[in-house]
Amino acid sequence: MRCSPNNQYYYTLHQTLVSVIIPSPTMKFNNITLLPSLSSIPTITPSPTPIPPPKNNTLCDCYIISGPDPGYFTNYHFWDFRNIPLPNATQQLAPDPLALDTTLLLSNTPFINDWLPQTWTKTGTTELLPITNAETNVFIAPNPDPKSHVSPNPTYLLLQTTRHADHVSTAEIEFLRWNILHCSLRVSMRLMSNETALGPRIISPSPRKPEDKHWGKGRRRKLRHNIVPKGACVGLFTYHSKTCESDIEILTSDPPNVIHYSNQPDYDPVSDTAIPGAGSMVNLSVPWTAWSTHRLDWFPDMSRWYAGEALQAVKAYGVPQEPSTLVLNLWSDGGNWTGNLRTGESVFLGVEWIEMAFNVSSVAGGSVGPGEGQTRLRGRAVRRADLGPVDGDVSRARSKTLDSEIPKQENIGKGDGVGCRKACYICNRHLYNGDTVPLQVFTLV
């Protein structure tokens, strides 16, 4: 079954505005209201002073996802970074937006109520460089190629890491709740070079027909090559402790199709070897230099990882059992795991949106104090290990698309003892239409 408005065999389509920020050209950040979750479904009319939307608790009792386990999650968030008002927005058509003050720190937006840029540091050793997390490395920026998608995306979130002579400046954001207990986490992201992330804006004629081979008369489109420097690591993961976490990791020293999935611990420092069954290195069909949705499903007895619309890995070993938070970071320390950036080099992680359906525990998992965050970084001596073949059940599922596994109506409400009478299915497609951010969810009838 495809995720389509035309398919209503089990589902009735509801178009729901669910962005944490639903901006209009006249909105100012000090007036934007954050939505705590999708237990209430908001509607909003763009105006200079947004009014908190009325609550509607009748649409969804729970949220379900594609895959072998529908999830039955009771909370939902969607953070959209694709159309955020920026300083000097009226001048954004200038050839070089960097000549203007057109970026906006994440810490100066309402997103700060959910995602906190980290500022902790880690001292160096004889083998590792010191690292310093800076809130200035996490910011909203204009998209240099806003028409590269099917629909326009004027802005995105950027995380930046830069190698200096005596340290590495890094970026990390942490979800402010520490009581997440199982979730389906999805992020639309790509890795970029400095030229790609912050290069001069690409201005194309509009409209342009698909058969056009030139832009204007006698001028071919100039493609921007996205050659990402080697030596940085992206981490997207749940975190309770260094032995209780579930990871998606990308190393820019790897080929651009290789990604790492694991439950911690995945490494035995005594034997200096990888723990069997803890992790997998997977070759993706879409490189991490291109936009793709990366997904982690954390269930009580299983972790599943997806990229695009394909299941990539399944692990029963080391599944986290404690309330956790969520972390997204971009870093390097010059060690064997990340590799070494050259002095002056920068790597950027672009993020279009973050989406999460989740359950919570009544017991919080704790919080990280100053300096404690450094335990999240890899310390092992081996940068790459043979983590074995692709999981057998993953190979069998590779030919399936996510939407072919939408749960049937008669199966809803039978999982985890949850009496879910109105289940909203989370669609996998988030297209920005220039005015609002619609998320399609299907409500069982």
From TrEMBL:
GO cellular component terms, semicolon-separated: plasma membrane
Domain GH16: 79-362
Membrane topology note: Lipid-anchor; GPI-anchor
Molecular functions (GO terms): hydrolase activity, hydrolyzing O-glycosyl compounds
Start and end residues of each stretch annotated as Disordered: 200-220
Localization terms from the record: Cell membrane
Alphabetically ordered keywords of this record: Cell membrane, Membrane
Gene3D superfamilies the record matches: 2.60.120.200
Signal peptide residues on this chain, from the entry's feature table: none
One biological process term in Gene Ontology: carbohydrate metabolic process
PANTHER family: GH16 DOMAIN-CONTAINING PROTEIN, GH16 DOMAIN-CONTAINING PROTEIN-RELATED
Name of the protein this chain belongs to: GH16 domain-containing protein
Annotated organism of origin: Aspergillus transmontanensis
